[in-house]
Design brief:
- By secondary structure, this protein is an alpha/beta fold.
- It folds into two domains: 7-45 and 290-397, Aspartate Aminotransferase, domain 1; 48-287, 3-Layer(aba) Sandwich (Aspartate Aminotransferase, domain 2).
- Helices cover 43% and strands 14% of the residues.
- It contains 14 helices and 14 strands.
- It has helices at 7-11, 16-29, 48-59, 72-86, 100-112, 128-135, 155-161, 184-197, 225-230, 255-268, 274-285, 289-311, 346-357, 381-397, and strands at residues 35-36, 95-98, 118-122, 139-143, 166-172, 200-204, 231-236, 249-252, 325-329, 337-338, 341-342, 359-360, 362-363, 372-376.
- The strands form four sheets. A seven-stranded mixed beta sheet has the order 2-8-7-6-5-3-4, with helices on both faces. It has a three-stranded antiparallel beta sheet with strand order 9-14-13.
- A hairpin with a 2-residue loop joins strand 10 (337-338) and strand 11.
- Helix 3 crosses helix 11 (274-285) and helix 5 (100-112) crosses helix 6 (128-135).
- The longest helix is centred in the last third of the chain and has 23 residues, at 289-311.
- The radius of gyration is 21 Å and the shape is globular.
- The mean pLDDT is 95.
- Bound molecules: pyridoxal-5'-phosphate (PLP).
Amino acid sequence: MALQLSDIALSISPSATLSLNATVALLKQQGEDVISMGVGEPDFDTPVHIRKAAKEAIDAGKTRYTDVKGIPELRQAVADHIYAHKHLRYSKDEIIVSSGAKQAIVLALQSIINPGDEVILPAPYWISYTEMIKIAGGKPVIITTVPETEFLPTPEQLEAAVTERTKAIIINSPNNPTGNIWPRELLAAACELARKHDFFIVSDEIYEDLCYDGYSQISPAQISDDAKQRTILVSGFSKAYAMTGWRMGYASGPLFAIKAMGSIQSHMTGNPNSITQYAALTALTASQDCVVDMAHSFARRRTLLLFLLAQNGLRPGVMPKGAFYMLLDVRHYLGKKCGDVVIDSDLKFAQMLLEKAFVAVIPGAPFGADGFVRMSYAVSDIQITEAVRRISSFVQSLE
Ligand code: PLP
């Protein structure tokens, strides 16, 4: 027998984050005190009132299939939430809830991409986008950016990436892994290109509630009416409400695209988990103090991490303005040796840092950020302090 997997399955790379997690788990099993700055999730528990709503939903028998696009009350609450935060008006029919922002992005791409269509993807990018584009049959067109432009593409680079096959651009602001936020002028340039060449904008706004130093996130859909009509805005509950395991995200956009996403979802997973939907409804409609409190903690940790890094002569690739990540510049250490091992890449740097100093960070290369590693500061102040101490002594030991 010569059973063959599909071309798409063979083209998909496993997540770099997950393989690192496996090494971390192994080291922990061996009793090592590993500080994991690799994970992309808040270290907080889901707030009590949200958990309570889920328990009540179970007891009230909210355990059956729901409307495939999500219960109307939740879709209305999402529409109200978007209006309150961004003054963008969507009807509940222009909203779909899915099993995580991840699924919403895949559905968005599957709804708009034909085989061979191109999707513009500025680097550094969240690891999953390239694979999601491929799953949808598309081709990622990556724009390489540099620290000198704060890892943002220039309007000229955006324009140069457009071809006759361009079907969409993915914008992720605040960005994973850089923590940078797209300024209004750059968004306006991208929206103008989308209008001129008639393509979609997929805007991943999952870190919208985590912005610092007075910066705030702007959605491309806020730039103009035309931009709103071609934007599929995606967000979710994982990061702002510490609900990663619950799997709840949403998308808003033009009715025809949201309808198509609903049709695909109906055959793929059906509705997202009914109990999670009721928990999410409470998350949106109850007090938002928990979101503010968690955002304050991330802000404090970011300040601490930046201060300690500077004190130890370590540099972020770009000043992070949002999310809970930053890129650490490790280009200076490439070519140096750790014992007998030459640090010839950010991957090797991350491997040796984990093996020798027991600090887990993610290599930048899979994010399109060669020469950098991604640190997540969704860990305690004590862990941040100890991690920087270890990183500092690790880099000093390199020869
Ligand atoms: N978008 C970005 C940029 C992310 O970093 C992540 C998770 O790390 C997601 C989407 C996925 O969110 P969810 O847990 O809602 O699927």
